[in-house]
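Support case: citrulline complex. Customer-provided input:
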Amino acid sequence: WRFTHAITRVPADSVADGLRAVDTGNPSGEAFRAEHAAYVNALKAAGLTVDVLPQLEGFPDSCFVEDPAFCLPEGAILLRPGTASREGEAAEIRAALEARFDTVVEIPGDGHVDGGDVLTLDDEILIGLSARTDRRGADAFAALLAEWGYNARVAETPEGVLHFKTACSTLGEGVILATNVMIDSGFFGDRKTVQVPEDEEYAANVIRVNDVVLVPEGYPKTRDVVEAAGFKTVVLPTHEARKVDGGLSCLSLRF
Ligand code: CIR
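Agent response - structure generated as follows:
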């Protein structure tokens, strides 16, 4: 959670056709771009250099750059998103990664992994199996991470949760923010957890960036528990992202 750079992509107008589990109305490209600009500014205020890639109308979900790649200090890994309309996003982000990393590799094999299913903890990387991340992809990714010297573990994302990180986040300093379903699952062992208050589950997806935790607007109880745990928060609007199941982490690659 100590980062110097981020990569983001401006939301396209085609985000109105973005994937979602439950339809609550289409997001507006224009309104989303305003929220996105506030997000980019917050990353800059947290100390990051932010690459803002141009909107890609051919890929409605392409502003969610977290899903087609994964970044570590050693290099970047191009993933294979687990839904047909998003597979091509990995090729689209390659050049931006090559501009920042000496090493850019593709996940081996033909399995699928969405970056939203990958939770980086201080001492371990958790890979959640989900409707997007399959066993073949998760095993291949875990093996690659092991080659790079990381402990990686594959876990089963609970039913009804799109991505592993939809329901949990690292707050840093050994603390995890998670919904009670995720805490009850036992994934986190005896690590310290902060529980997202019931009825604010969407707010489980936050990001720790250097000295602050970015939290979504409209979830005051979650903000309170994060602050009470000793973290400084910055509140950002994510109303448009939410209509297509997106949250704060999905909107950037941080490294
Ligand atoms: C999708 O369903 O793929 C997008 N509409 C939302 C992706 C959110 N990404 C994430 O949680 N990492």
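Helices lie at 29-45, 89-100, 135-147, 180-184, 220-228, 239-243.

Case will auto-close in a few days if no follow-up is received.
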